[in-house]
């Protein structure tokens, strides 16, 4: 049950938004959950439906909630995290941006792979392998494999058991479609091989091998970006 929202110095929609946020933090509503409808929320919060609408708009703007037209309001999977928090899509010069993102990925992703090798469950490794296989099949079929690539890197990050790292994933994931686009998928075979090497190392619970395999994956990406024309 929602606790009744009390009046204080804050506007009522902000109070309602704070109450909904607390319920999410407390685990009453989890990422991906659908919220009660507007009428039920208004009744349980002790506010009007217009207040609920304003609270929802506020939380949508903060990437806490998302509205699925015709299906209701849901808690965002990456609650409170914007898809492109650094505005990377607006930075000109895709080659330089790709190389700059490579530098960030070198700082972070090999360590992520190392932690995943220490903490991933056998079931999670099976999921990684399934994603590797799907990426391989999409590459051989000439299809865009960006979405499955993002899913794989997201899963590896989740397996670190670090509560902060998953919130970095939207930033790192922005790099994946960019790399695929500007390199025109020139690293397809290397992608298959290095992804598999990362997963094999995680399965073997070999942190150093996982670190090295992810490092090599990024080296291949960097080389392919360096090879493209400077005016990209």
Q: Can you offer a commentary on this structure?
A:
It comes from Ruthenibacterium intestinale. Residues 10-78 form the HTH gntR-type domain. The chain has 232 residues and is mainly alpha-helical. The protein folds into 2 domains: 12-75, Winged helix-like DNA-binding domain superfamily/Winged helix DNA-binding domain (Arc Repressor Mutant, subunit A); 88-226, Up-down Bundle (Four Helix Bundle (Hemerythrin (Met), subunit A)), CATH 1.20.120. It contains 9 helices and 2 strands. It has helices at residues 12-25, 38-45, 49-61, 94-119, 122-140, 146-158, 165-182, 188-203, 207-226, and strands spanning 65-68, 72-75. The chain has a two-stranded antiparallel sheet with strand order 1-2. Helix 4 crosses helix 7, helix 4 packs parallel to helix 8 and helix 5 runs antiparallel to helix 8. The longest helix is centred in the middle third of the chain and has 26 residues, at 94-119. The N and C termini lie far apart (54 Å). Mean pLDDT is 86; it is low at 1-7.
Summarize the helix and strand pattern as letters.
Answer: HHHEEHHHHHH
Mean of residue pLDDT values: 86
Architecture of the largest domain, CATH level 2?
A: Up-down Bundle
* Helical content class: 55-70%
| Major beta sheet, strand line-up | 1-2
Through-space gap between termini: 54 Å
The number of helices is 9
Major sheet characteristics: 2 strands, antiparallel
- CATH superfamily of the largest domain, by name, is GntR ligand-binding domain-like
Low-confidence stretches: 1-7
The CATH first-level class of the largest domain comes to Mainly Alpha
Radius of gyration: 21 Å
The total beta strand count reads 2
Q: What is the fold named in CATH at topology level of the largest domain?
A: Four Helix Bundle (Hemerythrin (Met), subunit A)
Which structural class matches the secondary elements?
A: mainly alpha
Total individual domains: 2
